[in-house]
Amino acid sequence: MTERVLTGDRVTGKLHLGHFIGSLQNRVALQEKYETFVLLADVQALTTHFDKPDLIRTHLREITLDYLSVGIKPERSTIFIQSMIPEIAELTVLFSMFVTVNVLRHNPTVKTESKNSGLDDMYYGFLGYPVSQAADITFCKATIVPVGDDQLPHLELARKIVRRFNELYKPVLVEPKPIVGERLIGTDGNSKMSKSLGNSITLDSTSEEVAYKIKRAKTDPARVHKNDPGHPDICPIYAYHQAFRPDEYPEIREGCEKGTLGCSACKALITSTLEQLLEPMRERRSSYAAKPKIVDDILISGTQRAREIARETMAEVREAMSLNYF
Length: 326
Ligand code: ATP
Ligand code: MG
Fold this sequence. Notes:
GO terms for molecular function: ATP binding; tryptophan-tRNA ligase activity. With 326 residues, the protein is mainly α. The chain folds into two domains: 4-185 and 292-320, 3-Layer(aba) Sandwich (Rossmann fold), CATH 3.40.50; 205-285, Tyrosyl-Transfer RNA Synthetase. 56% of the residues lie in helices and 8% in strands. The strands form two sheets. A three-stranded parallel beta sheet has the order 1-2-3. The relative contact order is 0.15. It binds adenosine-5'-triphosphate (ATP) and magnesium ion. Adenosine-5'-triphosphate (ATP) is lined by residues 9-10, 12, 18-19, 21-23, 147-148, 150-151, 181, 183-184, 192-196. Residues 9-10, 12, 18-19, 21-23, 147-148, 150-151, 181, 183-184, 192-196 line the site of adenosine-5'-triphosphate.
């Protein structure tokens, strides 16, 4: 069977280094081998941002520029808009018939995110977003989903939904498997760099912004003086060395633990590593940003292609469920 890749991002803010490590770099590599679909999850963004449609609208194009800047190639990857594929909404409704509320309530990622939101109660759409994510994956019969580890419970649910659907009706859907990227810590030391936690370095950051965020980032609190021995395993800066300078981090660990490498020198090293990563992205970004018509055409043709596939899958699903009346 040929593999097909699908992933996407909530259109809630610009993409950051965590997305790059967790998912984007895998997508860039996978697109060379497999047909790849990249979803701009604007409906899923509404589950927490339904009162901010303008923010979603603005970020749709920003994230598209993020994709193009990291090297997602429109000729290899289909970039498309979730809300413009009504079949995803249809599949969500059909799947929701055989997913229980308790399964969704006990989903660990839903629990963490709902706790972070500070609300006592969950919106119906938010509680159900893992079901809608199963529809995102199955409409194009994706087999590989490159994601961060917070998405694993959702992938497990998607696999269960596929199995259940196939045994209840007809085996028309395909079980997806995840490819899991590393999780990147936030500049504040939170275990996840996240759009909604304000602890991220976005991919479109200027050199000054990167330097400023790294300067302000938390380090080992026990290291008061430059030559105090450090504890790299609790330091976000060390985590960034591991993620972005994999060849050199043993020396950085040693320097930190022995107190021979001070925090500001260590921060200067990672700042320059990040510059090397981000500079080519900035160039690609500005060349696409100067041609908004081309960016729109990429979205229009990607969405058209996704829609064609969605129609085909939906016809099979309707037939499997005896919903093909005429
Ligand atoms: P939000 O806070 O709005 O949910 P987010 O930063 O979690 O935003 P998503 O759009 O929900 O971003 O996630 C898109 C993809 O990026 C998912 O596969 C997720 O696992 C991955 N991802 C997000 N943050 C990180 C991170 N810090 N490290 C690794 N992967 C991440
Ligand atoms: Mg998220």
